[in-house]
């Protein structure tokens, strides 16, 4: 009877030791686990942002094809409709406009479709080009 109690106590002790030691192993790799979890969350956020940019680009291209974009539109109106352009740069002096903003299809890779919007000094759309 005493042997059974000792055996039961020994098995219980081994079980508890196993549980506690497995927790230590988890804590030893907590940093790596958290890094992977954060990486996964960042990937989801990046994909959501890419999807949003794709939708905005598609809408811009569709509006150009339908004739909804017109000269004289203010830059802030365009930005409110299609989002902030990935790149705006000063235009060359001989071009006749002040600034060029570029929207691109984020899914296109190196051969991505581009839409170039040119603005005058008063930030009004002067012309555009889809490539």
What's the helix and strand layout?
Elements: H1 2-28, H2 30-66, H3 75-82, E1 87-90, E2 99-104, E3 114-119, E4 125-130
Antiparallel strand pairs: 1-2, 2-3, 3-4
Structure description:
The protein is α+β, with helices and mostly antiparallel strands. Helices cover 55% and strands 17% of the residues. It contains 3 helices and 4 strands; from the N terminus they run αααββββ. A 4-stranded antiparallel sheet has the order 1-2-3-4, with helices on one face. The chain starts with a helix and ends with a strand.
Short key terms for the protein model shown above:
131 residues, alpha+beta, four-stranded antiparallel β-sheet, 55% helix
Strand order of the largest sheet: 1-2-3-4
Uncertain stretches: none
Provide the helix percentage. Answer: 40-55%
Secondary-structure element order, N to C:
HHHEEEE
């Amino acid at each position: 009877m005493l042997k059974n109690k000792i055996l039961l106590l020994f098995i219980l002790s081994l079980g508890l030791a196993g549980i506690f030691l497995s927790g230590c192993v988890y804590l030893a790799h907590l940093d790596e686990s958290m890094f992977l979890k954060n990486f996964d969350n960042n990937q989801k956020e990046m994909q959501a942002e890419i999807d949003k940019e794709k939708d905005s680009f598609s809408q811009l291209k569709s509006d150009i094809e339908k004739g909804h974009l017109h000269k004289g539109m203010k830059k802030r109106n365009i930005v409110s409709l299609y989002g902030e352009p990935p790149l705006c740069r000063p235009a060359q002096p001989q071009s006749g406009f002040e600034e060029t903003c570029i929207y691109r299809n984020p899914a296109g890779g190196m051969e991505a479709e581009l839409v170039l919007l040119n603005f005058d000094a008063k930030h009004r759309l002067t012309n555009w080009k889809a490539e």
